[in-house]
Amino acid sequence: MEKQKINIHWFRRDLRLTDNHALHAALSAGLPVLPIFIFDTTILQHLPKKDARVEFIHASLTSIHEKLISVGSSLRVYNGTPEEVFEKITSEYDVQTLYANRDYEPNARERDKRIYDTLKEKGIQFIGKKDQVVFEPSEVLKDDGLPYTVYTPYSRKWKARLSAHPIICYPSEELSANFLQTAPFDLPSLEQIGFEKSGIPFPTIELNTEAIQNYHLNRDFPAIPGTTRMSLHLRFGTVSTRALTLYALTSNEKWLNELIWREFYQMIIYHFPNTVSNAFKPAYDFIEWNNNEEEFKLWCEGKTGYPLVDAGMRELNATGFMHNRVRMVVASFLTKHLLIDWRWGERYFAEKLLDFDLASNIGGWQWAAGSGCDAAPYFRIFNPTSQMEKFDKQNEYIKKWIPEFNTSSYALPIVEHTFARNRCLEKYKAALLKK
DNA sequence: TTTTGAGTTGTTCGA
DNA sequence: GTCGAACAACTCAAA
């Protein structure tokens, strides 16, 4: 029997059917589209059984699958390496073109290059589209053609480019008749791919418009819901970046700037992939870290004796989320007060954060450590006590996460602030002299 | 090529 | 309590 001619849409970080660029292109191309997702076993094998992010992906896929069934199609979910999966698909179908939205992380780019080469040998095209960002890493460059390393001029250029190139959406949801018509495929259960329910609730996809309106007023106070909790949805593409940006343009410039920060760090990781493991400013790799494992453990568990630090870490451990203000405080504390390598903290966040995004996580940690592009100056050391007094005056946030706060059973500070501050200044100064 | 203005999120000290 | 300056020069971006 002759194999059926089809195109494929490969879902990755774009787990939605609406305003999806590559999906729109696939559905416009004239052949039936087989929508697929691959649980990549090379990635999954490193994750704990109760990884809430896998659970979130699974729930998002289930939702896509159900919508596809209602239009006579189905999502095909695989468990394996992309190479194995495409080998299998091409044995069943006559695949013309593979569509996917581009991913700018170093590992993903390597993977996509491999798949591109493999498919090319078989005469199959692999077309990537821009979807995760409004402007790709090479669309916003300095006048000399080199990438920016400072946020503010980058954001100015970004905004100027937006005026000249307004956002165009891709109504993929209007083309659902062009999916491959098929009996439903079995969607593997969470257990079948080797995972369990985590019990961690996910932020909803509804946009908190009130939080956006007052974002600049409330965003620094962890006790109030002053942030939008969109990070998880941006990470997995369950919401459209374009749609959020269009909303930001008419609502709150400060919030728009946060979306631009996200693209700034995607741009940085694309052009400077070595910053995943090295300081953006090489001199900072001369810092003699203390790297005390016992202190690191106390930080992870939220037992440093500094309430804002501990509340933040406990929020992270319990929910997979931490308020942005508190992320800065705990990161500053780990790197500067405890003199523990930012990579340790970065790895811990990577393991725990639901919204973990490599580019933003590396960018944020290097910013806090002072080693990043456009980073906080090294002598800017957050005082965890005054941060608490400024941003959690009533101790609401702290009491929520530290029941024993203000009792004798609460930990004593593991390091004295002024001592730690001076020690940090000395160590950093010494490292910078070596460059 | 040179020059100039500016740079996410802070803290401490002294008047 | 409040305010400005110092922290430490350095690098970047653009004219």
Description:
Helix 13 (307-319) crosses helix 14 (324-337). It contains 19 helices and 5 strands. It is of the alpha/beta class. The model has no long low-confidence stretch (mean pLDDT 95). The chain folds into 3 domains: 4-132, HUPs (Rossmann fold), CATH 3.40.50.620; 133-167 and 209-269, Serine Threonine Protein Phosphatase 5, Tetratricopeptide repeat (Alpha Horseshoe); 275-433, DNA Cyclobutane Dipyrimidine Photolyase, subunit A, domain 3, CATH 1.10.579. It has a 5-stranded parallel beta sheet. Helices cover 47% and strands 8% of the residues. It binds a DNA duplex (15 and 15 nucleotides) through residues 142-144, 148-153, 220, 257, 261, 324-325, 328, 332, 367, 374, 376-383, 386-387, 421, 425, 429.
List the SSEs and their pairings:
Elements: E1 4-11, H1 21-27, E2 33-40, H2 41-44, H3 52-69, E3 76-80, H4 82-92, E4 93-101, H5 106-121, E5 125-129, H6 151-164, H7 209-213, H8 215-218, H9 231-236, H10 241-251, H11 253-271, H12 293-301, H13 307-319, H14 324-337, H15 342-352, H16 358-369, H17 384-391, H18 396-401, H19 417-433
Parallel strand pairs: 1-2, 1-4, 2-3, 4-5
The protein binds a DNA duplex (15 and 15 nucleotides) through residues 142-144, 148-153, 220, 257, 261, 324-325, 328, 332, 367, 374, 376-383, 386-387, 421, 425, 429.
Quick structural gist:
By secondary structure, the protein is an alpha/beta fold. The chain is 47% helix and 8% strand.
General form: globular
Strand pairing plus helix content: what structural class? alpha/beta
CATH architecture group name of the largest domain: Orthogonal Bundle
In the predicted model, the low-confidence regions spanning at least 5 consecutive residues are none
**Whole-number mean pLDDT:** 95
CATH topology title of the largest domain: DNA Cyclobutane Dipyrimidine Photolyase, subunit A, domain 3
How many separate domains make up the residues? Answer: 3
Query: What percent of residues adopt helix (DSSP H or I)?
Result: 40-55%
